[in-house]
Design a protein that fits this description.
The complex is a heterodimer of chains A (114) and B (112). Chain A is built from no helices and eleven strands. Chain A has 114 residues and is mainly beta. In chain A, a hairpin with a 6-residue loop joins strand 5 and strand 6. In chain A, the strands form two sheets. In chain A, strands 2, 4, 5, 6, 9, 10 and 11 form a seven-stranded mixed sheet that branches. Chain A has a four-stranded antiparallel sheet with strand order 1-3-8-7, with no helix packed on it. Helix content of chain B is 0%, strand content 55%. In chain B, a hairpin with a 4-residue loop joins strand 7 and strand 8. By secondary structure, chain B is mostly beta strands. In chain B, the strands form two sheets. In chain B, strands 2, 4, 5, 9, 10 and 11 form a six-stranded mixed sheet that branches. In chain B, strands 1-3-8-7-6 form a five-stranded antiparallel sheet, with no helix packed on it. Classes of the chains: A mainly beta (114), B mainly beta (112).
Chain lengths: 114, 112
């Protein structure tokens, strides 16, 4: 049972290059999220998808786009990477049960923009 | 500013001691709280949660206390082990949303 799988695990980009981070979950959850984590800071929400076919902005959406390809997959795209986007990116999906909802996270994608 | 914060960025303890990690939140509408553990190079993992209609919840070696009066949350780890060394995040959910707001985290260092 893989849970949440992210690819790639590491990536180095030059300023202005584009790339897509892939995320897939095999838990049949409706919602999926993308967070970024910077040193000394908590996780900040970039975009989320409450269900297949819907996406919404989170706290820090500028410079990113997302696609909810199907129920399993939620990708994050950087159209023109900037050094400020150097970060660790986490995909997550909540297991909602009644009024509780713990998040299951991927292992992270470490992105460096030069 | 952040609605969820931590009092201590780093906590060092000796193996076998009890650890207490604190968290303050500012949004009185928050009704569901979760503690996550993040080991180096990995994604956060769920430890324990608590709803606002409770003030204490216990798991295996961990206890979460919630004081709604002062908007304070704590995670207690009994008999701390080297494997407990990690960054611990508290997260709050507001009004039925399952999109938590995370604090900055506390680094727990356990000395053998």
């Amino acid at each position: 049972n893989a849970g949440v799988t992210q690819t790639p695990k590491f990536q180095v980009l030059k300023t202005g290059q584009s790339m897509t981070l892939q995320c897939a979950q095999d838990m049949n959850h409706n919602s999926m999220y993308w967070y970024r984590q910077d040193p000394g800071m908590g996780l900040r929400l970039i975009y989320y998808s409450a269900s297949e076919g819907t996406t919404d902005k989170g706290e820090v959406p500028n410079g990113y786009n997302v696609s909810r390809l199907n129920k399993r997959e939620f990708s994050l795209r950087l159209e023109s990477a900037a050094p400020s986007q150097t970060s660790v990116y986490f995909c997550a999906s909540p297991k909602v049960s009644g009024k509780t909802g713990e998040l299951f996270f991927g292992e992270g994608s470490r992105l460096t923009v030069l | 500013g952040e609605s969820v914060g931590l009092h201590l960025p780093t906590l060092s303890v000796q193996e076998g001691d009890n650890s207490i990690i604190n968290c303050a939140y500012s949004n009185s509408a928050s009704d569901y709280f979760i503690w996550y553990k993040q080991e180096s190079g990995k994604g956060p993992q769920f430890i324990i949660d608590i709803r606002s209609n409770m003030d204490k919840r216990q798991g295996q070696r961990v206890t979460v206390l919630l004081n709604k009066t002062v908007k304070h949350l704590s995670l207690q780890i009994a008999a701390t082990q080297p494997g407990d060394s990690a960054v611990y995040f508290c997260a709050e959910n507001i009004g039925g949303s399952y999109i938590p707001t995370f604090g900055r985290g506390t680094s727990l260092i356990v000395h053998p």
